Amino acid sequence: MSIKFLVCDDSVTMRRIVLNSLKNIGYESFVEAQDGKEALAKLAADPSINFLITDWNMPVMSGLELTRAIRADENLSKIPILMVTTRGVKEDIIEALQAKVNNYVVKPFNPQTLKEKIDQILGIK
């Protein structure tokens, strides 16, 4: 299965880190967005995007708001969502899981951790 990632983070540097990590673990198809609103527009415009990696803390629309919007849209609701964020307290993780993110990574992370979380979501052993 070919994976096309949408990487959503307001930090250009963080998007680069995520993209480089994805490249290091063998993925090569990406789209970027700087906030949830832009991510929703890109998801609507490009049906080939089939995996979202998003930050939580962003202007305009947060990753949590983005997750809720995706889960409420029957055309997008099945897309896997990995939240990559600095928010590591238990209450935040629970809130994200309740919003139906598929998995959660606390920054900083390494490519292997990203790979493990993506593999878990995709059911790869």
Low-confidence stretches: none
At the first level of CATH, the class is Alpha Beta
N-to-C CA distance? 15 Å
Q: Average the pLDDT over all residues and give the rounded result.
A: 95
Our estimate of the beta-strand percent is 15-25%
DSSP summary: helix tally: 5
Question: What order do the helices and strands follow?
Answer: EHEHEHEHEH
Total domain modules? 1
Structural class: alpha/beta
The strands making up the biggest β-sheet line up spatially as: 2-1-3-4-5
- Percent helix, as a range, is 40-55%
Number of DSSP strand runs: 5
In the CATH hierarchy, the third-tier topology is known as: Rossmann fold
Q: Architecture, CATH level 2? A: 3-Layer(aba) Sandwich
Sheet bearing the most strands, described? Answer: 5 strands, parallel
Report on this model:
The protein is an alpha/beta fold. It has one domain: Rossmann fold, CATH 3.40.50. It has 5 helices and 5 strands. It has a 5-stranded parallel sheet with strand order 2-1-3-4-5, with helices on both faces. Helix 1 links the parallel strand 1 (5-8) and strand 2. The longest helix is centred in the N-terminal third of the chain and has 13 residues, at 12-24. The chain starts with a strand and ends with a helix. The mean pLDDT is 95.
Topology readout:
Blueprint: E1 5-8, H1 12-24, E2 30-33, H2 36-45, E3 51-54, H3 63-72, E4 81-85, H4 90-98, E5 103-106, H5 111-122
Parallel strand pairs: 1-2, 1-3, 3-4, 4-5
